[in-house]
Amino acid sequence: MEKLNIILNINNKPVDVRITPNDTLLEVLRDHLDLTGSKESCGEGVCGSCTVQLDGKPVRSCLTLALEAEGLKVRTVEGLADGDKLSPLQESFVNHGAVQCGFCTPGMLMTADALLQQNTNPDEDTIKKALSGNICRCTGYSKIVEAVAHTAHPDDQCPDCASGIKSCCKTKE
Amino acid sequence: MRLPQFDYKGPDTLEKALDLLSTHAQDAKILAGGTDLLVRMKKGLIAPKTIISLKALNELSYIKKDKNTIRIGARTCLADIIASDSVRKEATALSTACERVGAVTIQHFRGTIGGNILQDNRCFHYNQSAFHRSGRQACHKDGGKICYARDESDRCNSTCQSDGATALMALGAKLVLVSKGNERTVALTDFYTTDGIMPFAMEPTELLKEIIIPVEGGKSSYQRLAYRSAIDYPIVCAGVLLKASAKKDTIEDARIVVGAMGRAPLFLAKESSELKGKSFTDTKAFQKAGNGAMNSASTFAVHNVGSTLEYRCATVSEMVFRALQEAVAEASKA
Is the entire prediction scored with pTM above 0.80? Predict the structure, then answer.
């Protein structure tokens, strides 16, 4: 079968890869480029663990042909941290215990990061809606939502506490 | 899951796409977003030799509003439709329906309105892995002669679970189909065959170019029931369009459509016409319409999309009732 050379822009670096037309973006990231942060779970767009950003928007990489990502900016979970310094969102996930087994985390991070780029101070409903396409089978959603809510204001109250709907921040030390 | 092998074509004009389609018609598939096509390919349900991608065809991505219509390009992604003020105002049902499809992460890039209308019919006996299907005889849709959903049925009973198509049929939408040197417009109500194997009345050389929604001042609503609010197909859904009389207290015209209950969304002409002239406060008439819709839709439904048939049939009336109430609330506001 014919092989093609394409150039993908991954985490702001141009990468030359040799692929076949039936390679998905996820397969190229994991198998060709060793960027194993993005996970394959269901492989049919249900679970969200393969989420990466294309031009800043969260997209299922298991349902995206690598060929279709040519010319777009691909950002994976490996592109969030700056060297050893975690991004504020990653830091918040760690501080709030939002990681259990960790399999859904890369997808959650990429979806939440895309949300925070558009809306720096989202309330709980907005976060839940944005994350509705990502499944966590450890059932740890409340910590994840909390982690996202506190990213912009690590020491401050989240929007729901500030308006008196919840009191998660007041109990925190 | 690996995708089977195929040739990839990425035409950059509509003309080139139609040329390719006319040459490869029998073994080619159109790729818009891929949320339906690539999943079926991964499961080995189809194995097209050629994939014609619409990625470069930006000319098919637009929302145009003029005096009496809204025109939407077939490759417009769902996120653009949700964000459009004119669609939200004039075709509320479509906006709500698009919001319910998949999740936010599917609505941009991957989810397109054309793909949503043309998603293949589903059945939990058919949409399974190759391994699962290898353990029994093939069904009608798989090339065999059995229907597992309805005993002794001589044809495929797969269900159309498109949110977009149900809402658009309620809005009275038309589709523009193009092939090389030809263009035709067909009402969405006439677009379906009664065969679950190939549910759409379109030629393999044809491409869905545009959706035309007439805007005549009616108020619409869409209601759906699914197990999960995100990433799930509807098990019952209903779309409704109401036109108010000049005094804004009675119904001049109505369209009721029920989805996910048959091979195509069902336009219920009898129940719709019975609502004409009824008062906005006549909740008994709405309940009667809901019950009528339940009786009509029940004849078409089979037990093949998740929930039990009894539950799905019982909830049709409530979905229609809620949709009518919401549309009336909107219409009396305006």
Answer: yes
